[in-house]
Automatic annotation (TrEMBL):
<feature type="transmembrane region" description="Helical">
    <location>
        <begin position="193"/>
        <end position="215"/>
    </location>
</feature>
<feature type="transmembrane region" description="Helical">
    <location>
        <begin position="59"/>
        <end position="78"/>
    </location>
</feature>
<keyword id="KW-0716">Sensory transduction</keyword>
<dbReference type="InterPro" id="IPR000276">
    <property type="entry name" value="GPCR_Rhodpsn"/>
</dbReference>
<comment type="function">
    <text>Putative odorant or sperm cell receptor.</text>
</comment>
<feature type="transmembrane region" description="Helical">
    <location>
        <begin position="90"/>
        <end position="114"/>
    </location>
</feature>
<dbReference type="GO" id="GO:0004930">
    <property type="term" value="F:G protein-coupled receptor activity"/>
</dbReference>
<feature type="transmembrane region" description="Helical">
    <location>
        <begin position="236"/>
        <end position="252"/>
    </location>
</feature>
<keyword id="KW-0807">Transducer</keyword>
<keyword id="KW-1133">Transmembrane helix</keyword>
<feature type="transmembrane region" description="Helical">
    <location>
        <begin position="272"/>
        <end position="291"/>
    </location>
</feature>
<feature type="transmembrane region" description="Helical">
    <location>
        <begin position="135"/>
        <end position="153"/>
    </location>
</feature>
<comment type="similarity">
    <text>Belongs to the G-protein coupled receptor 1 family.</text>
</comment>
<dbReference type="InterPro" id="IPR017452">
    <property type="entry name" value="GPCR_Rhodpsn_7TM"/>
</dbReference>
<keyword id="KW-0552">Olfaction</keyword>
<dbReference type="InterPro" id="IPR000725">
    <property type="entry name" value="Olfact_rcpt"/>
</dbReference>
<dbReference type="Pfam" id="PF13853">
    <property type="entry name" value="7tm_4"/>
</dbReference>
Amino acid sequence: MENCNQTSTDFILLGLFPSSRFGLFLFILIVLIFLLALFGSLSMILLIFLNIHLHKPMYFLLSQLSLIDLNYISTIVPKMAYNYLFGNKSISFIGCGVQSFFFLTLAGAEALLLASMAYDRYVAICFPLHYSIKITRRVCVLMIIGSWIMGSINSCAHTTYALHIPYCRSRAINHFFCDVPAMLTLACIDTWVYEYTVFVSTTLFLLCPFIGIVCSYGRVLRVVHHMNSAEGKKKAYSTCSTHLTVVTFYYAPFVYTYLRPRYLRSPTEDKVLAVFYTILTPVLNPVIYSLKNKEVMEALRRAIQRICSVKM
């Protein structure tokens, strides 16, 4: 333990972009995706807030998802872009802890909120007569608050552990953000106990909600299968399959990354998989949940017409 570094020294984020033309192309692509995600999430939040026809439980949950996505991608990409542009890959010990805390809080909150949204759709389609009783504004608020609180508690536990262990190897984190499992490869001590808590957290916050979402959509598709309208069936199948694809993009790489033992993990593979749940999902969510929703598209059309009439 004599060669352990002081915890006040900076970490080095090795990043995602290689020093080549391909790295520059990847950087430009991710910045464009980031800007698109910001625009999409902000537009969704404002549209739901300003349009009285969207003041319903489902859209209340959707606005919260957009808020989480907005903060989620902003926790990762700006620092990554700054490091690439200025060639400064360092991040302070405290800064690393703050980034890790917000990443884990938002990731956990989104995982639980997506499960809440799937439950909302399950009740709406399978028990339409009971929807107004089971899914009230109070229930939505409780689901949202619960998602944030549970995500914060889980994040606080993991971040606190990461900030209190001694680091004695290279300070270079082979990732593009302060991912706690990537940080632990630099630890002086055996972290098998912590790796077990990661397994438990991943199961509770990712695997269980994902299984619940798949089961709920399975029940929804079963109900849809017995519908008389062929057009209604086609629309429902299309919507469900799209939602499941986006949800899988978020949960599957996350679960695969965090449930694997350390000796089976590859830094390069972890970074590629992390792109799915840190960058691609936040940009896909507003697109999928708006384009596949007639009420949102109608509200967007009215908003655009209003803006155009004001300009004229």
